[in-house]
Amino acid sequence: MGNSKIKALTMKKFIKISPPGNGDIIADQERVLKALHDEFGEVRFSHQLLKKIYPLCRQANWEVTTTLIKNGKYWELVELEAGDKSAYHLGIAVDLGSTSVTMRVIDLNTAAVLGEESILNHQIKYGDDILTRIFYTKDKNEHLKAIQQATVDTINVLFNEFVKKMVIDPLEYTVMVISGNTTMVHFLMGIDPWPIFEYPYAPVFNHTGYRNCQDFGLLVNGCFYCLPSVANYLGGDTISGLLVAKLEEKDELGLFIDIGTNGEMVLGNKNFLVAGAGAAGPALEGGISKHGMKATTGAVDTVTIVENELRLTTIKGGRPLGICGSGIVDLIAQMLLNGWIDFSGRFNPEKSQRIVKRDGEYGVLYANRDEAGNGEELLFTQTDMNQFIDTKAAASTMVAYLLERLGVTPMDVERLYVSGAFGTYINLESAITIGLYPDLPRERFVSLGNSSLNGANALLTDREKMTTAIKLQERIEYLEFGAATDFISKMHASRFLPHTDFDLYPTVKAELIKRGRFR
């Protein structure tokens, strides 16, 4: 039964117990523990299960399935079921993002992924960004409870979707691993995250340990575990990503980057790990433009300019409704290469009829009323451009600062791991063209997809990664970008496309020279 190579976070063990009688008066609990002892050693038994053991064992004719979880040095018994239910063993991985929440169901006997769903985080009704939500809950216990409930509701909605679609007994779900940033996990636990924002920026906690789902109103039967955070802006989602990237196992110098609303990055190898994080802004997720949108149906996701004509594609085809992060990066890169904008991001209206003036400022009209799916003019304006360049500058400066602190150059990075939805769908050439990523040989880039979710998945199917996660949390040296005196001046140098120092971007420089854009 199952795959013997999988060391899942929980184990299901079917046991047949000799019943009491003929002078054998050993208690029910001791009978169960004795049946488990040879394989699991000393097993801890919760009061909740003690209340369940009678009459379950007697009604099941002393044939029961036990569910156990490794908690430190000991195994804990977390569930008892009548009969042999060992074939039904499911786990849940959750990426608890500030904007969207994704859930994946995994068969813990085979490691097969049985399904994946994503919805918007219900917290959004209390603020589009994390900072607004932190201020909303400060010193207001009722507000904190509301955001905690919104978090729980989001997870429960996703869970109910799976229960309905898969027609599986909720008892078969034994454990949930949650990966999220430091603030999201504080909200889930009902802990005021204000210390994350206020100097000296120390979270209330880094580790949650195992928690009973029902104690928090979660509909999952078993327990949940949140991957540990390192610092205020370096959360369990980064630790989760490192479980996938495995920097700490390698000789080569690796750089892990996850750029979204926040930018998180870790540089290192098996000898050291140094990390930094900071606000990048919503621009990279399409959140700055009036017509910006998430990467959903109708979003412009790719842009090219061929013979000075703008061409674009949308997600799932159809007419455009707005533009997402990958589309914005393409649009800016293509306009730069074709002279529609200068190196500071200023529009050159004489270069194309697509560059129009509306409400006193220039912008590129990437879809007119006839071309758009909503009958509106879709514009990317100078204001949008400036905000995007600020975000790009923040993200690239974080990388530059991290490298400089360790005395290494971009070319010393032998592998660059790109995480997150933005990193998955972005055109790599476009990102390098505008200076978002270092100009490295392209084969050094590795896309990890949703590493927050994939790391939670990895832990569910390999409990030894729990030790790795805890060691990573302890080993990482965290740099506070806000304390860097020259960060702002470095950021100003990065406000140009791709950078004020073109020698940092040799392939971009070569392409611009080829196109007559640079001498």
Task: Summarize the topology.
Blueprint (H helix, E strand, L loop, with lengths): L9 E7 L11 H13 L2 E3 L1 H13 L3 E9 L2 E9 L7 E7 L3 E8 L5 E8 L9 H8 L3 H26 L6 E8 L1 H8 L4 H4 L12 E3 L10 E4 L9 H10 L8 E6 L2 E7 L4 E7 L19 E8 L2 E6 L7 E2 L1 H13 L17 E4 L2 E7 L10 E4 H24 L9 E5 H6 L2 H6 L11 E3 L3 H11 L3 H11 L1 E4 L6 H7 L12 H9 L5
Name the quaternary structure: single chain
The first-level CATH class of the largest domain is given as Alpha Beta
Domain count: 4
Report the uncertain regions: none
CATH superfamily of the largest domain: ATPase, nucleotide binding domain
Strand-residue proportion: 15-25%
Q: Say what the CATH topology of the largest domain is.
A: Nucleotidyltransferase, domain 5
Count of distinct strands: 22
* Number of helical regions: 15
- In the CATH hierarchy, what is the architecture of the largest domain at level 2? 2-Layer Sandwich
Structural class by helix and strand composition: alpha/beta
Please outline the major beta sheet. 6 strands, mixed
Radius of gyration: 26 Å
Give the overall average pLDDT: 90
Strand order in space, largest sheet: 7-6-5-8-10-9
Domain RACo linker region: 6-86
Organism: Acetobacterium woodii (strain ATCC 29683 / DSM 1030 / JCM 2381 / KCTC 1655 / WB1)
Domain RACo-like middle region: 90-249
Pfam families: RACo_C_ter (PF14574), RACo_linker (PF17650), Raco_middle (PF17651)
